[in-house]
Specification:
By secondary structure, the protein is an alpha+beta fold. The protein has 6 helices and 6 strands, in the order ααβββαααββαβ. Bound molecules: zinc ion (ZN) (2 copies).
């Protein structure tokens, strides 16, 4: 369920995107292979557990509104640059380069002065996905709602990867 994001918080993201885009088009690294770069559209309708995504052909960056609301600094410092770098790589090189390849890493490092980290450090608990504790002989693991439903309907069972014992609801 998409939440409505306060307009000042939306504005912060748009402002950041504009700043980074300006940085990119004035960067010597990109100027050398100048092509007309087009500022992507920013939307706040990313679903699921991921922070954001870049729709290259549509020139759209999607951000997860709930995660952004609860991780604003991280989004402004990392996620927007990460996704914009994907857009820039696509506009400069097309699709024949790897998503997090050297071209993407160079933009992160040399244009945005950021570490090209691929994994997000985010608090996803704010999304409110319910989990259920299951145990075996050695540990307690959290199963997702979907997996829990399958166990309850007896359509699926899950074994502990460490001890091999069937997981049971605690
Ligand atoms: Zn990425
Ligand atoms: Zn176990």
């Amino acid at each position: 369920m998409p939440i409505s994001l306060p307009s000042d918080i939306q504005f912060q993201a748009t402002k950041k995107l504009n700043e980074l885009f300006k940085l990119a088009i004035s960067s010597p690294l990109i100027k050398r292979k100048w092509k007309k770069l087009v500022l992507p559209v920013l939307l706040f309708n990313q679903r699921g557990k991921i922070a954001g995504s870049a729709r290259l052909r549509d020139n759209v960056i999607k951000l997860n509104a709930t995660l952004y609301l609860h991780n604003q600094t991280y989004f402004l410092n990392q996620v927007i640059a990460h996704e914009l770098a994907h857009i820039l790589v696509y506009q400069l090189y097309g699709t024949r380069v790897k998503p997090h390849g050297i071209e993407w890493q160079q933009i992160m490092l040399n244009v945005f002065s950021l570490q090209p980290d691929v994994t997000h450090q985010l608090d996803t608990s704010v999304l409110g996905y319910k989990t259920y504790p299951y145990s075996c002989n050695c540990q307690v693991v959290e199963l997702s709602q979907t997996r829990h439903n399958k166990v309850q309907r007896q359509t699926q069972q899950y074994k502990c990867r460490k001890c091999g014992v069937m997981l049971k609801l605690v």
